[in-house]
């Protein structure tokens, strides 16, 4: 008799694809932010003589034709495209992304949020004079689109509905058990 397979992850190829897209986007975003991007590699356009760039009439053209000046923007745009593809794959397959990964992606422009490079983070407390420590909010501002994401810092996350319902049922059962035990039992009289 054949052995039953152990239950595996459904849509494993989709999870692999999502992981690859995120890793590639993170790599490209890191490459875009690296200072002196074109200094380590010589591109054919950077290595050519200045007389190669000529206009159609034969005169020398003084403009830069796609050297290393636009390369960081191109890699940043490619990184955003990969994250857009990641979002579409997860939506089509109804796969949940972990909140930690979701927080590193801008909800509006799909930019990978790297602290100090593509976003800035501040902690705000808009309570009166900042007196309430539980009102701290982490604000992440995207440099690409200018929008802000806000996350509560000290507040615990609410459980998803099925887990909340299960916990509520457990509490109800324990309350009933304690209420039955706490009631005085009638004593037998002779």
TrEMBL record:
One Pfam family cited in the UniProt record for this chain: Rpr2
Biased composition (Polar residues): 38-48, 65-74, 176-190
GO cellular component terms listed in the entry, alphabetical order: nucleolar ribonuclease P complex
Family annotation (InterPro entries): Rpr2/Snm1/Rpp21 (IPR007175)
Keyword terms of this UniProt record: Metal-binding, tRNA processing, Zinc
GO BP annotation list: tRNA processing
Compositionally biased spans, kind Basic and acidic residues: 50-64
GO molecular function: metal ion binding
Superkingdom in the source lineage: Eukaryota
Region (Disordered): 36-74, 153-190
Family per record: Belongs to the eukaryotic/archaeal RNase P protein component 4 family.
Name this protein carries in UniProt: Ribonuclease P protein subunit rpr2
Organism phylogeny: Eukaryota, Fungi, Dikarya, Ascomycota, Pezizomycotina
């Amino acid at each position: 008799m054949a052995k039953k397979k152990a239950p595996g992850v459904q849509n494993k190829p989709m999870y692999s694809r999502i992981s690859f897209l995120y890793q590639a986007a993170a790599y490209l975003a890191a490459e875009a932010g690296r200072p002196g991007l074109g200094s380590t590699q010589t591109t054919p356009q950077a290595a050519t003589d200045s007389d190669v760039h000529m206009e159609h009439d034969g005169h020398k053209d003084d403009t830069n034709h796609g050297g290393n000046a636009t390369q960081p923007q191109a890699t940043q745009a490619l990184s955003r495209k990969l994250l857009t593809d990641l979002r579409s794959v997860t939506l089509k397959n109804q796969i949940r992304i972990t909140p930690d990964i979701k927080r590193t992606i801008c909800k509006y422009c799909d930019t990978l949020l790297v602290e100090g490079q593509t976003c800035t983070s501040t902690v705000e407390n808009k309570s009166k004079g900042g007196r309430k420590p539980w009102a701290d909010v982490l604000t992440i501002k995207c440099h690409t689109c200018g929008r802000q994401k806000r996350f509560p810092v000290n507040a615990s996350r609410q459980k998803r509905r099925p887990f909340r319902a299960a916990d509520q049922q457990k509490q109800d059962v324990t309350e009933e058990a304690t209420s039955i035990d706490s009631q005085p039992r009638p004593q037998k009289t002779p």
